[in-house]
Specification:
Shape: globular
Radius of gyration: 27 Å
Number of strands: 4
Distance between the termini: 56 Å
Largest sheet: 2 strands, parallel
Helix content: 55-70%
Strand content: under 5%
């Protein structure tokens, strides 16, 4: 596989993993800072994550074999790129496809998204783009010239001050390009209407359910890994590590127990809290409605899925019924609403909270 393709795949995978880890906090922060989460902004943040990793994969990878690597030189002439341009103009063939020109253009383009994201997502202007672009480029070049801070005996790539110049120019260009985005869509400031109630839709309810699934899955995974490490290095039970039952059960117990504690304390799941929804009304008293909310959410699926076969197949039926119930009501109340509770925005004045 080509190194550049491999670097791109690595950036996508790394960005995706970080995106999963930050998904629930990102959704919760979006609903509190901007009052909602739009698909466009979510996509921009996802692209920013991938881009962050792409900077490192494309500038630092692949790492060389220590036994075969050759030490690279340095270019401290900040105007050397001018000579490269002149040389390209004298050489036969298309000017724009000359390797020296392509290198300059790619160095600029690599940092254009940085300035763009800083303005659109962070609300920062040209000066910040210039400083961040320069600092990032300096760090990359220094990492290269120091052999990844001493891992290698010498520089494995050329230290080039021209790269820092063109990278910084790219960040500034990206900041200017971001001015084409309407000002109301730029920045990270809290929106004036962030606390205004929004319509409750099936999509919003599904987003809350997704937050529950991702959040609970992460908690269970972390607990499972910790238990596996404990069994391996403290208990020394290799068979239990291979079997995996202890870690799986621990993950289910801790994860669903945490979700139960949140619902008993607030009446809402983690996903409900993230997207600012709550259940109101219904025929059940609070002391019963909250455990029912727990059992009819992601915890119910998790408990069914943990049963031995063939009972674990009930989890698939649970998912099917949940999907049907999600679309059976306009507000997407789903299974938790079978006893009449409706879903409302938590910014509305509560009449009765279950």
């Amino acid at each position: 596989m080509d190194d550049q393709v491999r670097n791109g795949i690595l950036a996508i995978v790394a960005g995706g993993l970080v995106g999963v880890l930050l998904f629930v906090p990102f959704v919760a922060l979006s609903y509190r800072r901007r009052g909602r989460l739009t698909a466009g902004r979510a996509v921009l943040w996802a692209l920013a994550l991938v881009y962050f990793w792409a900077i490192w994969t494309y500038t630092l990878l692949p790492l060389p074999d220590p036994d075969t690597m050759r030490c690279a030189g340095t270019n401290l002439d900040i105007w050397a790129f001018v000579d490269d341009i002149r040389g390209a103009a004298r050489r036969p063939g298309p000017f724009v496809t000359d390797p020296a020109i392509l290198q300059l253009v790619l160095n600029v383009l690599l940092f254009v998204p940085l300035g763009f994201f800083l303005r659109v997502l962070g609300g920062r202007g040209i000066l910040v783009a210039l400083l961040v672009g320069l600092a990032t480029s300096v760090f990359v070049e220094t990492t290269q010239v120091t052999g990844v801070w001493g891992i290698y005996p010498c520089a494995y790539r050329v230290f080039d001050v021209d790269d820092m110049l063109t990278n910084t120019l790219g960040a500034v260009a990206g900041s200017l390009l971001a001015l084409a985005v309407p000002s109301r869509l730029r920045g990270a400031e809290r929106a004036p209407d962030a606390d205004v109630p929004r319509p409750v839709t099936r999509r919003r309810r599904a987003l809350g359910m997704l937050c529950d699934a991702v959040g609970l899955g992460l908690v269970m995974s972390v607990v499972g890994v910790v238990v596996q490490l404990w069994l391996q290095f403290v208990v020394g039970d290799q068979q239990a590590v291979i079997d995996g039952t202890v870690s799986s059960v621990a993950g289910v117990v801790v994860g669903t127990g945490l979700w139960l504690a949140v619902i008993l304390g607030t009446g809402r799941s983690v996903g409900d809290l993230a997207v600012r929804l709550r259940f109101a009304g219904g025929v059940l008293p609070t002391w019963l409605a909250r455990p029912v909310r727990w059992l009819t959410g992601v915890s119910g699926y998790t408990l069914l899925d943990a049963l031995p076969d063939p009972w674990s197949l009930l989890a698939l039926l649970f998912v099917a019924v949940t999907a049907v119930m999600l679309f059976a009501f306009r507000d997407g109340r789903g299974l938790p609403g079978v006893f009449g509770a409706r879903v409302v925005d938590d910014r509305e004045v509560p009449a009765r909270v279950e």
